[in-house]
Amino acid sequence: MSTLSLPNDASATVDWPGRYYHIDQILNTPGPRTDPAFLAGDGVKGFLRNEAKILVIGAGGLGCEILANLALTGFKDIHVIDMDTIDISNLNRQFLFRPKDVGQPKATVAAEFIMKRVPGVKVTPYFGKIQDKDDDYYMQFNLVICGLDSVEARRWMNATLVNLVDPENPESLKPMIDGGTEGFKGQARVILPTITSCYECSLDMLNKPTAFPICTIANTPRLPEHCIEWASVLEWPRVHGDKKMDTDDPEHIGWLYKVAAARAQDFKIEGVTWSLTQGVVKNIIPAIASTNAIIAAACCNEAFKIATSSAAYLNNYFMLIGTDGVYSYTFEHERRLDCPVCGGEALEIVIAPDFTVEQMIEMLVEKQDIQIKKPSLSTPTKQIYLQAPPQLEEATRPNLEKKVSELVPPGGEITVTASTLPFSLSLRVTYSL
Amino acid sequence: MAGPDIDAATTTIVAEAPPDSKTRRYDRQLRLWAASGQNALESSRLLVISGTATSTSVLKNLVLPGIGHFTILDPAKVTPEDAGNNFFLEGPSSIGKFRAEEAVRLLGELNDGVEGKADLRSLEEVLEKDKDWLTEFTIVIAHNLEAGLLERLSALLWEDESFPPLVVVRSAGFLAEFYIQFHEHAVIESHSETASSLRIDKPFPALLDYSASLDFENMDVTDHGHIPYVYILVRVLEEWKKSHNGNPPSSYDEKKEFKKIIVGMKKKIDEENFDEAEAQAYRCWTSSTVPSEIRALFQDPKVKSLTPKSAPFFHLVAALAKFTEEQPPNTLPLTSTLPDMKASTNSYISLQKLYKARAEEEKTLFKSYLTVPVDDATIDAFVKNAHALKLLRGKRWGALDKNPSALVAAVESAPKQLSIHLSLSALSSLSTKQQPNAPLTVTVEALVAEAQALLPAGTDLPENFAEAVGEIVRAPTADLPNTAALLGGMVAQEVIKMITKQYIPIDGSCLIDLIETWTGVF
């Protein structure tokens, strides 16, 4: 047995004999379905253990599992980004955290735990946003695995990796493996930017978030949720002015709960509870260790297969439903030629000639395959409406009431941008008769 | 089998106050299985045989949500190979220590509320000297158990219906299988996504009367735009029936005409409640009857031969059978769960009250058919889920292998599933034949011979068999971290469903191929 050295010393040789007995059965021999290009033996082991550099986005429910799996599989240079700190409600599944860690950054605690538990693995944490990092940063990795709970962050990461692709430089193509879970359900997929369907291509597969019309909330509440929305959307700003609502602050939740419960009582609506209040205002998605384990394992298995070529990787989507038995579906999600991120073709839209700019913005926010919050619109020659900076917003605001047909000729292009997305969307507008 | 003790409930969700720290810790899972599921988990006692990477992965996902107790039965000491692939060992520093003790210690750190115990006896010893002990657990899980021992264990646990279910887990490299051996599993809270019927086609008197009393013509315009669609549909259907010999619309043209009537009632173009009524019109010609799956339950032998000692589930089903037979309109009892719909607060709340009052009446009637006392919470849950009850009847581990016609059928109908199952079985029988301490020699030829022997004479191996068996030869003893983690998640998920009696566990074997990232059941 070799001697132990500091766990965060990447050059340390702590590979005791037998350490990779299990993994090496795969890496020593090809299987019947292995690609002939697979070079069994020391070469592939060397790449995996000494060269491969992998980035994990998220150190939460999926992230904790992903980090542990990667470390045991033999990846030794792992980076992890997460902007969150640990909350007590994470402890039912985020198994690298303990009660004493509550309040600490997830990325840092997770990295330390892995390095302590799996000798010789170096995990470099970054406590912050993915948007803080530039292309050079992302260029250094061979692979990216995402364990995120936000659509916005996935779109950003996906678009960034698609933009990174330089046809002249094969190294610039970074496979992105994306996992997601909700209760007993989940999915894992492999995205080869510019080659396979990307995250943006499949945006219309997402469930539409439940949104309650403001008139229902204000005038005709029927469900406990309507009362809670009334408290958080209308009453909070009315009573507290500019003071920001913090959904992690029990006092704020307590206030919302009381206000919602009082309204429910006025309207004889039953079912407003503390737990429901918290669930609605934080948009809580149920989460358990087992589903995260399944999806993270599927993601890491793809990372291992891609990094080693020891077996074919997933083409390209795995969906799991565990509520009634074990149902899974593996299929190839098709690319969208008019995908704003990887497609290149402008998206054709047909609108009525009297459609206003404001209506068009509303449509862009609502449309299932677009979903752009706060879009800014321009044509190649003029600005139609800009959300920021304030001076330009003010200058373009009068256009909101104008008809699109007054500003854009039939067949003309509109470029849509949003500060949250690192890409722009081209629309080709035609008018219905 | 230690059943869930509802009286020992510790997790209660208090509506008014901020949750306590335990409820906060379990918040994300309580939203899936509520306090009742949590109590069942906390009362459970699990036995896991062997402390492999797969075993500890399963346990991790059960300790985190808070099972009551687990025991790892394993006499082995940690080898350098174990230390490399098991997250619940501390690398080289665990080598030479007892694997069960190390794993229990490190799994215990995940949750203070869970009791863990290492038992250093061998399964062989327990089967010989202390087999009753095995039957005292809620569920027993065994990973890659030697075929002879597995046979003895599964036979023992099958002896009596009250003995714990056995989860058999097998894996090699990228391939895996798991199976739950149980006699019977009844689920009330199946969390079905199908909603129960609103019974618009068979309206109860108060609903019919109120719908008939509405003066659509002379109503205030605002009120008219806020009539819940339920009233609209009941009213239009009743009038339709009067002119159609009491029948609902049946042909395509009739349905179209029916929808036209609804749309024609609008006073303003943007009355969304009438749009909703049009969209929901199918409820008028979808007859509210007892679903065939529930009807089949009524014929279950245990329902037919009910005794005072029968489990409450069968008493409830028997009462349901009588209720639906004798009480008009011969449907399942009404539930008070109403979907949201365009309506004013008052009209919606009063509709909700009508449904609630009627649901209470029907529940009281339903209760009168019960011949043994059943607690109210169970009755409430039963009535609410009467349309989605589930009764699974399991088989003994190995039943498929002893059923020649099922095997022959599976060659055609589930070749991928059968290939993985057969190649893992072939590996298992081959290992049993070799010397216990000699290194395992596995060849394609030897496995093919074993697999062929498992099939009825003259049956061809399934078409994907070569692919499966080739992977087994490549990695016959590999407990890969990713395979272990995936199995850990899937097995734990099924165990949670078994313990909580919520959601529906697998019925049969689940096969996993992590090359194609594929799962199948058969």
UniProtKB/TrEMBL annotation, chain A:
Gene Ontology CC terms, in alphabetical order: cytoplasm; nucleus
Functional pathway: Protein modification; protein neddylation
Annotated CDD domains: Uba3_RUB (cd01488)
InterPro entries per the UniProt record, alphabetical: E2-binding (IPR014929), ThiF/MoeB/HesA (IPR045886), ThiF_NAD_FAD-bd (IPR000594), Ub_act_enz_dom_a_sf (IPR023318), Uba3_N (IPR030468), Ubiquitin-activating_enz (IPR035985), UBQ-activ_enz_E1_Cys_AS (IPR033127)
Active site: 215
Annotated EC: 6.2.1.64
Group of enzyme by EC: ligase
Family classification: Belongs to the ubiquitin-activating E1 family. UBA3 subfamily.
PANTHER family: NEDD8-ACTIVATING ENZYME E1 CATALYTIC SUBUNIT, UBIQUITIN-ACTIVATING ENZYME E1
Protein name: NEDD8-activating enzyme E1 catalytic subunit
TrEMBL record, chain B:
Domain THIF-type NAD/FAD binding fold: 26-141
SUPFAM superfamilies xrefs: Activating enzymes of the ubiquitin-like proteins (SSF69572)
Biological pathway: Protein modification; protein neddylation
Keywords, sorted A to Z: Ubl conjugation pathway
Protein name: NEDD8-activating enzyme E1 regulatory subunit
GO cellular component labels: cytoplasm
InterPro entries in UniProt: APP-BP1, ThiF/MoeB/HesA, ThiF_NAD_FAD-bd, Ubiquitin-activating_enz
Region named Disordered: 1-21
Highest rank taxon of the organism: Eukaryota
Function: Regulatory subunit of the dimeric UBA3-ULA1 E1 enzyme.
Gene Ontology MF term list: NEDD8 activating enzyme activity
BP-aspect Gene Ontology terms: protein neddylation
Similarity comment: Belongs to the ubiquitin-activating E1 family. ULA1 subfamily.
UniProt source species: Laccaria bicolor (strain S238N-H82 / ATCC MYA-4686) (Bicoloured deceiver)
